[in-house]
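Comment thread on ticket #2218

A.B. wrote:
> Attaching the input chain for the structure job we discussed in standup.
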Amino acid sequence: MSFLENIREALRSISGNLLRTILTALIVSIGLMALVGILTAIDAMRSSLGETFASLGANAFE
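C.D. wrote:
> Ran it. Output below, let me know if you need it in another format.
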């Protein structure tokens, strides 16, 4: 099979299973948004903790 035939077959498969294709794209999008949200929350917590400990000063635990 040539490259063009492979592309045609892929497009036929996608259009034949349109609901599955849409659901898969939706789930992947939700997963990526969740990953970005979690990484953003972790970065915000790190920054907040760093600022809190920095405000305590160098001799806070003596």
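A.B. wrote:
> Thanks. Noting for the ticket: The chain has two helices and no strands.
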